[in-house]
Amino acid sequence: MSSSSLTLYASRPGFGLPDTSPFVIKTEVQLKMAGVDYDRASTIPPQAPNGKLPFINDHDEVVNDSTFIRTHIERKYGVDLDEGLDARQRAESWAIERLLEDHLYFTMVWFRWIDPENFAKGPAHFADSAPEADRPKLRQDLQARKAVELHAQGLGRHTPARIVELGTHSIDALSQLLGDKVCFMGEKPSGVDATAFGVLASVLTPFFDTPLRRAAEARPNLVAYVARMMQRYYPEHAWN
After folding, report:
1. Which ranges constitute the DSSP H helices of 135-235?
2. Taking the model in full, what pTM does it have?
3. 201 to each of 2, 71, 142, 160, how far by Cα in Å?
4. What residues contact 3, with CB distance under 8 A and at least 6 apart?
5. What residue ranges define each of the domains in the chain, with the CATH number in brackets?
6. How far apart, in whole angstroms, are the C-alpha atoms of residue 135 and residue 228?
7. What are 217-236's pLDDT values in tens digits?
């Protein structure tokens, strides 16, 4: 992408995805939806201003959190990612985003970070750049911190079977809400689709073998939706 005064600070491609973070994918897709030029730089969460990715630096104005980044983009660049939606549809979009970010996301994280095989295959490699002797302890600490986060959130207090049950309820709800529409609010993408795409692609990536992935694969409309969004916003990315 051409040089720009807006920089998106992201993770990096991995786990079969354009970025390992669904929130980075959300923000990058919303930048593309808005037609805003940006540069992309890889970093790690401890180097982010609030310890989370993504964040942006837009002409020396730093904005954290994907939701506030969207607000900034819409205000500064005069765009409305929900253009054409009425008040009820905007409210429904917010409710769907909360289901995705505050529920389904955490079930995905549990199977990515806490399941031993998936952790070893995926997030454990975040420690690969550390000195070899330090890696086992660093990986143990990374997983332990994520377990504490999930326990505090509440989902990590349940058994794996219960987590699957909860995640499947959200997947079922999303499948029903999408129905046979092209996008969640109709025929064209709106802001909520960036969120839905980021989280659902993270669930459906073939890189990890999880019960949530199999539940989502059993909903053909969700599988087709992610494929459409991937082709539209990341046509260069090999998917499935």
Report:
1. 135-153, 160-178, 191-204, 211-217, 220-233
2. 0.95
3. 27, 23, 23, 21
4. 39
5. 6-77 (3.40.30.10), 87-233 (1.20.1050.10)
6. 38
7. 999 999 999 999 999 999 99
Evaluate whether 33 touches 194 at the Cβ level (below 8 Å).
Answer: yes
**Cβ–Cβ contacts within 10 Å for residue 135, how many?**
16
Q: How far apart are CA 63 and CA 22, in angstroms?
A: 17
51 within 8 A of 43, measured Cβ to Cβ: no
pLDDT at residue 2 in the model: 44
Distance between CA atoms of 22 and 54, rounded to whole angstroms? 10
Q: What is the pLDDT of residues 62-75, one digit of tens each?
A: 999 999 999 999 99
Tokens encoding 163 = 């987590």
